[in-house]
Amino acid sequence: MVEQQEASEDAVRTRIGQAVMLLHGGDREEARNRFGLLWSELGADGDGLHRCTLAHYMADTQDDPGDELAWDLRALTAAEGLLGGERPAGHRGSSAVQALYPSLHLNLAADYLKLQRPDAARIHLRQARDAADALEDGGSGAHGPYSGYDGGVRAAIERLELRMRGM
User: Fold this and answer.
1) CA pair distance 39, 15, nearest whole angstrom
2) pLDDT of 2 over the 70 cut
3) 106 near 154, Cβ under 8 Å?
4) DSSP-based three-state secondary structure for 96
5) Residue 144: φ, ψ to 5°
6) Angle, to 10 degrees, between the axis of helix 65-81 and the axis of helix 48-59?
7) Residues 6+ apart with CB under 8 A from 43
8) CB 82 within 8 A of CB 49
9) φ and ψ of 141, to 5 deg
């Protein structure tokens, strides 16, 4: 039974990865279609980490800023469900979701800025910066002050902060 569940989770992760590759390759429409199909298959009771990841990437496929915000809010809601006790402590999803928090809030800040809601953008930008402090390498690495995922998110936070200061 456990092996079947793990195989099923691996298959979902593989399908998410394939759609992400399409997205990063520039085929937003096909990525959106595949994410949408996966979202329907998972349903409201699907794995929280899968729902969070799917919604996080689905937001990037949207043309309308309001739709992008709606998907980013779904991602945050799924993440909060995981950290709020949906899974046992120490579950593989807990640390993955904690690592996503800075990016989730950063995306929400950018969404609110697009929608000309700077106060909401500032709130999420502050939450992104606070959550970034919890990232694994703590902002220091072998390749300068930031590295890898941590560095990319921190740099994006700084760029959005500079952009908002210029407003």
Assistant:
1) 11
2) no
3) no
4) helix
5) 100, -170
6) 160
7) none
8) yes
9) -155, -175
Which structure tokens are listed for 125? Answer: 């930008």
Rounded-to-integer distance, Cα 161 and Cα 155, Å: 10
Alpha carbon separation from 7 to 2, 10, 13, 24 (Å, rounded) = 9, 5, 10, 25
* pTM (predicted TM-score): 0.83
Output the six-digit token pair for 48: 């929280």
Per-residue pLDDT of 131-158, as tens digits, reads 998 775 444 443 344 457 788 899 999 9
Closest C-alpha to 124, from 53, 84, 64, 69: 69
Query: Strand, helix or coil at 117?
Result: coil
The tens digit of pLDDT for each residue in 99-128 reads 889 999 999 999 999 999 999 999 999 999
Spatial CB neighbours of 95, under 8 Å, sequence gap ≥ 6: none
69 closest CA partner among 81, 56, 82, 80: 56
